[in-house]
Amino acid sequence: MHTPRIPDLAAADPRIAELIEAEAQRQHDKLRMIASENYVSTAVLEATGSVLTNKYSEGYASKRYYEGQQLIDQIETLAVDRAKALFGVDHANVQPYSGSPANLAVYLAFLQPGDAVMGMSLPMGGHLTHGWSVSATGKWFRSVRYGVRQETGRTDMDQVRELALAERPKVIFCGGTAIPRTIDFPAFAEIAREIDAVLVADIAHIAGLIAGGAHPSPVGHADVLTTTTHKTLRGPRGAMIMSTAEKASAIDKAVFPGLQGGPHNHTTAGIAVALHEASQPGFRDYAHQVVANAKALAAALVERGFDLISGGTDNHLILVDLTSKGIGGKPAAQALDRAGIELNYNTVPFDTRKPFDPSGIRLGTPALTTRGLTEAQMPQVAAWIDEAVGASAAADEAALDKISGEVRDLLAGYPMPGYAAA
């Protein structure tokens, strides 16, 4: 059952309570391997479900437009101070509602419509808000896109420099949503300095790894860091923008009043709790275990004949091209879900298929690491993935059901935050 318990909700709205309980059960029974998902602690759940959701707090601590902020100011200040200490930054803004608005604040802070912005192309592993054509960031600004080398699957830094010198973007984004290798922040910083551009490190996927010392930090290289607070950081669905002292005022004005009104105080509290948790010694162990699990899983998949973009991973994320398996990413992901393994279909670099029916799947190890799985279980996970992909190609539903039962049996031995057996 869901924890914390929800008896009042069950009495007031039984249908919603029933669906929440079913979702808790689903999360418990499946190998959740969507690279951008995780489990928050019960403490974070309690903070985000608190009476803080009742309060409006437009402005910043000690500079509000509504009264009654004596305690809200303390909560937000705690979150800010914890972010600054954990990441070693001059400034932190914890008010953005999610990662996309956080990135939009960067545009508002440092660009005018029509200015050039550089980011990794979405099909190569970038994010919509780094200037892709269907996003407002690609419609209102001149997008300059870099990619990866076809022979290595790694960021083409020569292309980044050539494009930067030719196009002179005012902002350069590094980071993305499907990058399995270490981001070379010093190299990006050198290019940004060469053209006097603002370097923005979008660390949404790797923030928890950076906090835990399992990935190099962009601090000291990037002027601005944007991140979600969930994913590897294991906080609520929110975002932060961190920066040098020089960029702080522009960032704060862009967030409020530039893009949004009152912050979500219950989310701010959840972020503060998650940042406190991330400062504890055990979080460092978790971050390094995430990477160890991903490397072990990648090696096991390669042994089973899977083609991994860049040949492996340095972080939490694995991107697989299924072309050689004779199946598209979408049917494979749907079959894996039926087999109790939750991930997403994903475009791979230089994909010849359409985005809604791409060649690849993207998977990660943050959530299963939170559950307590280690390298010892990764060969079995790879075996299940292999069996499920094969069963999908053969339309063998019985095999998928069998795997699903085996997954449930394994996970019964690994507790889940937010769920307790009845």
UniProtKB/TrEMBL annotation:
The lineage of its organism: Bacteria, Bacillati, Actinomycetota, Actinomycetes, Micromonosporales. It is an enzyme of class 2 (transferase). Catalyzes the reversible interconversion of serine and glycine with tetrahydrofolate (THF) serving as the one-carbon carrier. This reaction serves as the major source of one-carbon groups required for the biosynthesis of purines, thymidylate, methionine, and other important biomolecules. Also exhibits THF-independent aldolase activity toward beta-hydroxyamino acids, producing glycine and aldehydes, via a retro-aldol mechanism. Thus, is able to catalyze the cleavage of L-allo-threonine. One of its GO terms (molecular function) is glycine hydroxymethyltransferase activity. The modification N6-(pyridoxal phosphate)lysine is found at K231. Its EC number is 2.1.2.1. It is found in: Cytoplasm. The keyword Amino-acid biosynthesis applies. The record marks H230 as: Plays an important role in substrate specificity. PANTHER family: SERINE HYDROXYMETHYLTRANSFERASE. This is Serine hydroxymethyltransferase. Belongs to the SHMT family. Pathway: Amino-acid biosynthesis; glycine biosynthesis; glycine from L-serine: step 1/1; One-carbon metabolism; tetrahydrofolate interconversion. Signal peptide: none annotated. Its cofactor is pyridoxal 5'-phosphate. GO terms for biological process: glycine biosynthetic process from serine; tetrahydrofolate interconversion. (6S)-5,6,7,8-tetrahydrofolate binds at L122, G126, H127, L128. Pfam families: SHMT. It catalyses: (6R)-5,10-methylene-5,6,7,8-tetrahydrofolate + glycine + H2O = (6S)-5,6,7,8-tetrahydrofolate + L-serine. It comes from the Bacteria. Homodimer. The keyword S-adenosyl-L-methionine does not apply. Keywords: Amino-acid biosynthesis, Cytoplasm, One-carbon metabolism, Pyridoxal phosphate, Transferase. One of its GO terms (cellular component) is cytosol. Its main location: cytoplasm. Residues 10-385 form the Serine hydroxymethyltransferase-like domain.
